[in-house]
Design a protein that fits this description.
It is a single chain. 38% of the residues lie in helices and 15% in strands. By secondary structure, it is an alpha/beta fold. Helix 2 packs antiparallel against helix 3 and helix 7 runs antiparallel to helix 17. The longest helix has 21 residues. The chain is built from 17 helices and eleven strands. The protein has one domain: Alpha-Beta Complex (Amidase signature (AS) enzymes). It has an eleven-stranded mixed beta sheet with strand order 1-3-2-4-6-5-10-11-9-7-8, sandwiched between helices.
Length: 439
């Protein structure tokens, strides 16, 4: 049978093509295999024969579940039985017996796994350059980094090789790469998507994230992946209201964003105007408590939590860890139990201020990144440039917030810009509806 063209791999477009009878999963497999490039996106690919067998299995079924024949990728700190999990460190690699719950839900819904994607080692970083499997670059060129740590997952979507991809997000890893590659990044409320079968970064803050080419695709994946897990002790259920954009009170920064470069500030001003036009009303917000909470993530003791997952490996095989990753992880040894409690107390103070603010607004709009950086700039200052990329993302999980990052055009010098739509825990669906209206 001749191969049919696959003009659009976005989730909703594929659904329509399948429903029209003009496309088969086998056609999509051939298209995806032809699009896979040597751009450092991938660590492990599903064998082509297995990929084709999955398509044949789906075609033999009488029903078409929600993600029927939709190709996707998984960040390589998320387990898939039969494939190695490396977490970006070859010597750490193991072969899990079980597939992570969140991946299983997607497979059960008919999605087709393409492979495991590159990441900043141990999900420690926001640049996409901290990997022995190669440094990833933004699809927009110009020497820009891709953002991390979910670098490969974002690139696989941005290059239109897959329809969607899973990442993880502790400090911004599901949003910064989306911003630097012009795609949608959903950082759900912590605990809504199961983290069972995920190599932890900071286990109390981690969440599985979703990258997609558009908001509708991210929403479709979120709907399927959403489930209370009995094997993830951090899993939880929260109410998910579905409010319309025109009913929402939008918070905007009360003062100029001094940490944003001029180009990003100009792009944000344009995006803020579009968001304001959708909301019922707008209110200025002091964002300093949000940013102060974010400062605690790497300046405080939470970095020590990373050692609970990989500290023993770091002790046993220090030379297996990249120098910059090792430097970050080892700062966790400086903090005492007193430091941890002191930081928890400070975070609670800031959270109380932020919670007061949610009584007056329903969502907050900020830039996803305040600047973009090149590989050369990261090489010259790996810690500082990494911190700059996370300025507007670090606080979200500490403050138990949901975020959708959406493309926001380009700066005057042609660099990608992005908006973050931020809400309290459980606002995920409302944020997605606002994001869809904004697109």
């Amino acid at each position: 049978m001749p191969r049919r063209p696959v003009p659009d791999l976005r989730v909703t477009a594929l659904r329509a093509a399948y429903d029209s009878g003009g496309l088969r999963p086998a056609d999509v497999v051939d298209e995806v295999l032809g699009r896979i490039a040597d751009d450092h996106s991938w660590i492990t690919l599903v064998p082509a024969d297995d990929f084709r067998a999955r398509a044949a299995e789906l075609e033999a079924k009488s029903d078409r579940p929600k993600l029927y024949g939709v190709p996707f990728a998984v960040k390589d700190n998320i387990d898939v039985a039969g494939l190695p999990t490396t977490a970006g460190c070859p010597d750490f690699a193991y072969r899990p017996d079980r597939t992570a719950e969140v991946v299983t839900r997607l497979l059960d819904a008919g999605a087709m796994l393409v492979g495991k994607t590159n990441l900043d080692q141990f999900a420690t970083g926001l640049t996409g350059t901290r990997s022995p499997y190669g440094a990833c670059s933004s699809v927009f060129g110009g020497g820009l980094v891709s953002g991390g740590s979910s670098s490969g997952s974002a690139l696989a979507v941005a290059t239109r090789t897959v329809s969607f991809a899973l990442g993880t997000d502790t400090a911004g890893s599901g949003r910064v790469p989306a911003a630097l590659n012009g795609i949608v990044g959903l950082k759900p409320t912590r605990g809504l998507l199961s983290a069972a079968g995920v190599v932890p970064a900071c286990r109390s803050l981690d969440c599985v994230s979703v990258f997609a080419g558009d908001v509708a695709g991210a929403a479709a994946v979120f709907e399927v992946a959403l489930a209370r897990s009995l094997t993830d002790p951090w899993s939880r259920s929260v109410a998910l209201p579905r409010r319309a954009p025109g009913t929402l009170r939008l918070g905007v920064p009360a003062a100029p964003l001094d940490d944003a470069d001029p180009g990003q500030a100009e792009a944000f001003a344009r995006g803020r105007q579009r968001a304001t036009a959708l909301a019922a009303r707008t209110r200025p917000v002091d964002v300093r408590p949000f940013l102060a909470a974010g400062d605690l993530l790497y300046e405080g003791p939470w970095v020590a939590e990373r050692l609970t997952a990989v500290g023993d490996f770091l002790d046993a095989k220090p030379d297996s860890v990249l120098p910059v990753t090792r430097t970050v992880l080892e700062t966790g040894r400086r903090h005492s139990a007193v430091d941890a409690f002191r930081a928890q107390h400070r975070l609670r103070e800031l959270a109380a201020v932020v919670e007061q603010g949610w009584r007056e607004i329903d969502l907050l709009v900020l830039p996803t990144v305040g600047t973009t950086v090149t590989h050369a700039e990261v090489a010259a200052d790996p810690i500082g440039r990494n911190a700059a990329l996370g300025r507007y993302t670090h606080f979200a999980n500490l403050l138990d917030l949901a975020v959708v990052a959406v493309p926001n055009g380009f700066t005057p010098d042609g660099r990608p810009a992005s908006l973050s739509l931020i809400g309290p825990a459980g606002s995920d669906v409302t944020l997605l509806r606002f994001a869809a209206a904004l697109a």
